[in-house]
Amino acid sequence: MGQSSPESAPTIPIPIFQISQHVKRYMLYDIHIISWLRKTHNILGVLVGTLPQIPSQNVFLGLPVELLPEEARLLVETGLAYVVDDMDWHKKGFATNSGVQMTEIRTKLQKEGLEIAKDIRKKKQARSHEALKRMLEKSEKAAECGVTTSHVPQSVEVPSEDTLFGHSQAQTERSTVSLPPSTAYDVQPWAITSASSTPFLAQPAVSSPQRLPAVELASYALFSHLHHHGYFMTPGLRFGCRFSVYPGDPLRFHSHFLAMDVEWDEEIDLWHLIGGGRLGTGVKKAWMVGGVEERKDTPDSMAPIGDEERTAKDTRVRTFCIEWGGM
User: Fold this and answer.
1) Antiparallel, parallel or unpaired: β 286-292 and 317-322
2) Are the C-beta atoms of 10 and 4 separated by less than 8 Å?
3) Helix, strand, coil percentages in the chain from 3-state DSSP, rounded to 5
4) How far apart are alpha carbons 40 and 87 in whole angstroms?
5) Which helix (H) or strand (E) holds 117?
6) What is the pLDDT of residues 86-96, one digit of tens each?
7) Dihedral, CA atoms, 294, 300, 306, 309, nearest 10 degrees?
């Protein structure tokens, strides 16, 4: 889905895949696009991919990346991306693919798997030969010193690496590689599961008019304001807020603010302010509240517009930070 080269920027706009018309979750599958957005546009998303064999893992997740609705909305508004109905795109794409096309795709993937299997086999044989060579050298040195050594095997057993973890699906196999190498034997190709649908489907077309991802106005305005000032943001659920705000990439910095969006005329209970300030100070951060400022002197031409049509340029956001001075 939307493949790109790691050396260059992807083709703009990039597709953001909404799972379906009714499931409003926005995904990215191309690692190069994900890296480019993180490096160039401060867009992080959340890794949500997991292994089928370890469905309960929650530490080392992988592709795809799920974007926050605010992140997806910002990318669409700025013209960097467009939204694709993932389910509809797949249904239409596979319905138009012919049997010959699918056969060619499977053949290509099988060839790639065969090349990988041969490369792994070659590396395994090289390690086996090196291990046997060291054993022979050790035996020769011992013989020169007049030390009797046990019989040196003419072959070395090494674990098979037909799988990622060094063993097959059914059991751990052991293969014997001799020096000099024996006659060549058949190598079974690795099964490749493509991380994207690009080999099978054409790039999704940009729909017109382009629909904007649905967001809450207050949270999106705060997100756009902070993003405009160069901050990185991740979901703030673990701290009981809307966003965790970082001054740089979270791989290099700790977050500085716990941001919460509020309406301009919304009353905030005192215990919320105290609790937020104490929590933020307790984790060495500041509790931030922000909202869209209401303009009393707004002319008719600048009258409020609907949330679906409102963009970040139509709002002015003010933020305030609260810290607990008694801790």
Assistant:
1) antiparallel
2) yes
3) 35, 20, 50
4) 29
5) helix 99-144
6) 888 888 877 77
7) -110
